Amino acid sequence: MAFEGLTGRLQDAFSSLRKKGKVSEQDVQDAMRQVRLALLEADVNYKVVREFVNSVREKAIGEEVLESLNGGQQVVKIVYDELSELMGGEQAEVVTSYIPPTVYMMTGLQGAGKTTTAGKLANFLRKSKNMKPMLIAADIYRPAAIDQLQTIGEQLNIPVFSMGDQVSPVEIAKKGLEEAKAQNRDLVIIDTAGRLHIDEVLMTELKEIKTAVDPEEIFLVVDAMTGQDAVNVADSFNDQLDISSVILTKLDGDTRGGAALSIRKVTGKPIKFTGTGEKLDALEPFYPDRMANRILG
Ligand code: GDP
């Protein structure tokens, strides 16, 4: 299960604090040392950990907490609030266009779950916002990516625009957008190419598509199981492409938590959804407060 280790360790760190009424500065220091280790072990970015622990410590060693009769509980509450804040605090909604269609680009490394998530997102927004989506197959490099998107489209009964793999992705994106307008579709989701590693050719192509279609959102899809790598990938994509949001997949696996807790702080961009399974309805809006609750157990 996701966050299992982190939750266990945080509960250990707080078990004696929770029982105490009045807490001393030393109690807080001890608990913070354990929180720090728990976060590092969960693969949270070390700078994020340092800032987080400093911020909690500063608030927890304040007079009010130390003089309070339920200081232990208050320290735990501070950790909860700061965890939620670390992940963005408020839930971040998707951006839609006043003038349809709304255009989204799906980006990410191969295997992160980009193509599957394109279908999930189309399905989710059709259900929750009554939108009429069209998927565009602009990943012409990975063998079978186009077929995969078409299969997903058939399963969901959502049209998929494709021009095969001999036309440039920029051209496919532009033509797909025209087709969506002609068919009165109000949501266009473009599945772009991924690669095993970030490279210049990939980034150049993504920038060209971005310029050509001017999307409302560029979603970066990252695999939560890859921890710090996911955070580094997000940082690079954001530097080069100025992504708008992150979708964290495979949260149904036993991810340690590093990506979920670091990405917002490192990139400044919100996580808007999480993938929680292989099925096409396994996509959930991301709520930082609920996630903080889940992590604290
Ligand atoms: P892409 O190369 O980024 O387009 O990745 P795919 O969409 O082909 O996904 C790669 C694999 O990850 C597929 O087997 C998906 O079913 C799987 N996958 C995607 N999202 C999730 C998720 O949230 N949870 C789980 N368990 N598997 C996922």
UniProtKB/TrEMBL annotation:
Binding site for GTP: 108-115, 191-195, 249-252
Any one Gene Ontology molecular-function term assigned to this protein's record: 7S RNA binding
Protein keywords: Cytoplasm, GTP-binding, Hydrolase, Nucleotide-binding, Ribonucleoprotein, RNA-binding, Signal recognition particle
The UniProt record lists the keyword RNA-binding: yes
GO cellular component annotations of the record: signal recognition particle
Reactions it catalyzes: GTP + H2O = GDP + phosphate + H(+)
Superkingdom: Bacteria
Family note: Belongs to the GTP-binding SRP family. SRP54 subfamily.
Role played: Involved in targeting and insertion of nascent membrane proteins into the cytoplasmic membrane. Binds to the hydrophobic signal sequence of the ribosome-nascent chain (RNC) as it emerges from the ribosomes. The SRP-RNC complex is then targeted to the cytoplasmic membrane where it interacts with the SRP receptor FtsY.
Name by which UniProt lists this protein: Signal recognition particle protein
Protein species of origin: Atopostipes suicloacalis DSM 15692
Record lineage: Bacteria, Bacillati, Bacillota, Bacilli, Lactobacillales
Gene encoding the protein: ffh
Residues of the full protein shown: 1 to 297 of 480
